[in-house]
């Protein structure tokens, strides 16, 4: 599956830059580049009405941009986990986490056992994981579940490393999150 096919258009991932900061609202930048646990922030915003809904978990060929970030050959197979992070039952964030087959097997992390638990909470509780730089983009609508497919949704991704294991976590902020963020005063 080439990264730039009609089914998988290219994404332009970028780090925090002065140009990006100048043309992006402060509230959006705050969510995109927050270094803390997104799970914890969503839990606070939802006043503990947070949940995770798994959409897909399994082995499949990874996208080219994911292979590049993970240091894998194009077309490599990896574990893919797609979920909704929900507040008050509404999908606030679509998350896609991927890892290479060999590194995942060698590390022993059982992604399949997560179920409706948050991967983010695991990553932030395990001191062995080191978070790499956050990159952002307008996430391609073709990469989203059909019911959330929309143009110009902000997404971010970062890689979490533990030894040879690299987990790439992408999070896409859905319109319902921005509505909730405006409606509820966030306590940080």
From TrEMBL:
Its EC number is 4.1.3.40. Pfam families: Chor_lyase. Pathway: Cofactor biosynthesis; ubiquinone biosynthesis. One of its GO terms (molecular function) is chorismate lyase activity. It catalyses: chorismate = 4-hydroxybenzoate + pyruvate. Gene3D superfamilies: Chorismate lyase-like. Substrate binds at residues 81, 119, 171. Keywords: Cytoplasm, Lyase, Pyruvate, Ubiquinone biosynthesis. Removes the pyruvyl group from chorismate, with concomitant aromatization of the ring, to provide 4-hydroxybenzoate (4HB) for the ubiquinone pathway. This is Probable chorismate pyruvate-lyase. It comes from Pseudomonas ulcerans.
């Amino acid at each position: 599956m080439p990264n730039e096919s009609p089914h998988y258009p290219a994404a332009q991932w970028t780090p925090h830059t002065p140009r990006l900061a100048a043309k992006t609202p402060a509230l959006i930048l705050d969510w995109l580049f927050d270094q803390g646990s997104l799970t914890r922030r969503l839990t606070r915003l939802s006043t503990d009405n947070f949940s995770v809904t798994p959409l897909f978990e399994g082995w499949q060929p990874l996208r080219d941009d994911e292979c590049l970030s993970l240091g894998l050959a194009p077309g490599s197979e990896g574990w893919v986990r797609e979920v909704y992070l929900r507040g008050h039952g509404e999908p606030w964030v679509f998350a896609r986490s991927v890892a290479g087959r060999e590194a995942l097997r060698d590390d022993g992390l059982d992604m399949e056992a997560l179920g409706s638990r948050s991967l983010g909470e695991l990553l932030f509780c395990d001191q062995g994981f080191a978070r790499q730089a956050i990159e952002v983009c307008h996430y391609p609508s073709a990469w989203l579940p059909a019911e959330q497919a929309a143009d110009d949704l902000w997404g971010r991704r970062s890689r979490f490393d533990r030894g040879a294991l690299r987990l790439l976590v992408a999070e896409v902020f859905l319109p319902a999150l921005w509505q909730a963020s405006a409606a509820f005063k966030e306590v940080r």
